[in-house]
Amino acid sequence: MKKNNKIILKKGRNKFLYKHTVLTRIIHAIHLVSMVMLILTGFQIYAPGWFRLFATLEMARYVHFIFMYIIGWTFIYKIYYTIVTGEIKELFFNWRDLRDMPLLVKHYLYDIFVGIPSPSHWGKYNPGQKLVYTLWPILLLAQGITGIAMYFIPKFTAFNNFFGGLANIRAWHFVISWLFVLTTLIHFYLGSTGPKIVDFYKSVVTGYEKQGKH
Ligand code: HEM
User: Fold this and answer.
1) Where exactly are the structural domains of the chain?
2) What phi-psi label fits residue 108: left (phi over 0), alpha (psi between -120 and 50 degrees) or beta?
3) What pLDDT, in 10s, does the model give residues 17-45?
4) Going by C-beta distance under 8 Å and a sequence separation of 6 or more, which residues neighbour residue 192?
């Protein structure tokens, strides 16, 4: 059944909305694993004496590079995919979302606890989710550039000096890692704010979101 251009599946008394395509879910799983691996290996590379999950520092660096390539290329593909399918409109943070920030605060502090649904004009994702989705490609680009600058030191001497030296570039790479940790935790929390705590998590695995009160 199709309602307002959205595919609705009926199973007994429950209704399910088809929310995430197969490609979205595959890319999401790849990004999730990659981000966790990049953060874990990154900590070992930054402080090998303090954080030792992988057998050697070389191993941690090797795994870090593998997932850097995986997340980099799949991110480029994801951007292309969202542009071609038009989904970018649902994911991108805009001026209206900025104006709605006070509404979002009220939504998370009050509405979700008393069952008030999110405003219909928010669409698929609320302004908080969109802010995180828009921030990530920017952070990833900055992380990629600072990473490359640390790896190809001789070629990037002028670049590194322009930004205050290699130590500064390293510090920025570290700060951005923490921003990823923080925003991923926020994203993780926002995933629990569906009709039931598990509904959004299930939807990003199965594609279908159970319909009910938000
Ligand atoms: C702790 C790990 C993560 C969990 C538990 C998680 C969970 C979720 C959930 C539940 C949704 C669906 C939200 C909804 O239907 O309203 C979602 C969507 C999304 N997540 Fe994650 N996520 C994680 C990590 C990541 C990472 C690392 C990235 C990217 C770097 C990412 C990017 C996205 C994007 C772009 C969407 C929107 C899907 C779309 O329509 O394209 N997530 N996530």
Assistant:
1) 23-195
2) alpha
3) 999 999 999 999 999 999 999 999 999 99
4) 198, 200, 201
Q: Whose CA is nearest to atom 19 of ligand 1?
A: 28
**Ligand 1 pocket test, candidate residues 204, 205, 211, most atoms within 8 A of CB:** 204
DSSP state, 110? I
In terms of C-beta density within 10 A (0-12 exposed, 13-18 middle, 19 or more buried), how is residue 103 classed?
Answer: middle
Write down how long the chain is: 214
Query: In 3D, which of 191, 148, 137 has the Cα closest to residue 172?
Result: 148
- Atom of ligand 1 minimally distant from the CA of 136: 30
Q: Which two tokens stand for residue 109?
A: 């502090």
- Give the nearest ligand 1 atom to 191 CA: 10
Q: Are strands 208-210 and 2-3 parallel, antiparallel or unpaired?
A: unpaired
Q: Residue 157: enclosing H or E segment and its boundaries?
A: helix 157-162
CATH architecture of 23-195: Up-down Bundle (1.20)
C-alpha span between 174 and 57 (Å, rounded): 17
- Backbone φ and ψ for 163, nearest 5 degrees, come out as -95, 25
Q: What is the pTM of this model?
A: 0.90
